[in-house]
Design goal:
By secondary structure, this protein is α+β, with helices and mostly antiparallel strands. The chain is built from four helices and nine strands.
């Protein structure tokens, strides 16, 4: 009898930064790796990561992720690291040069959208190049979302 192959979902999303979708207009996204310690990976597998208020900066030709909270893994004892430490994001040099040009010239922001496991089991971060929304932009998108919801409700009721 043949053993069944392990079924993996393509990308298992662990956490999503919902605040980023509300506060920013997303212009471009890219996938990047993240430099982690072993206990941090186990903690992420348990879903103990928070992306709220996190952002990335380009320093010395490296992309550094700030304000990402990864809770300490209880079973790791003395091998735990600081939960709010800055972590390096892994990108190609050409990608970093392109991002730095757009961030510094256009005044854009780098915001992580989600953290997930790739097919091969690596932790990946979906990093977005964003432009901050003004208050009136947020109100406009909220009105648009509510009007679309009303249209869907009307269509659903009409079909009955």
């Amino acid at each position: 009898m043949k053993p069944k192959p392990i079924e993996r979902s393509e990308n298992k999303v662990i956490v999503t930064n919902r605040k980023a979708y509300r506060d920013y207009t997303i212009l471009e996204t890219l996938e990047c790796g993240i430099e982690l310690k072993g206990s941090e990976v186990k903690s992420i597998r348990a879903g103990r990561i928070n992306l709220e208020d996190s952002f990335a900066r380009i320093e010395n030709n490296q992309v550094i992720l700030y304000n990402t909270h990864i809770s300490p893994y209880e079973e790791a004892s003395y091998l735990n690291v600081e939960p709010m430490r800055s972590r390096r994001l892994l990108l190609h040099g050409s990608q970093i040069r392109k991002l730095s040009g757009e961030v510094f010239q256009k005044g854009l922001t780098l915001v992580p959208l989600k953290v997930y496991f790739s097919e091969r089991g690596f932790v990946k971060v979906a990093l977005a190049l964003c432009k901050g929304k003004k208050l009136y932009d947020r109100r406009d998108s909220l009105k648009r979302r509510e009007s679309m919801l009303e249209v869907r409700r009307a269509m659903k009721n009409r079909m009955r």
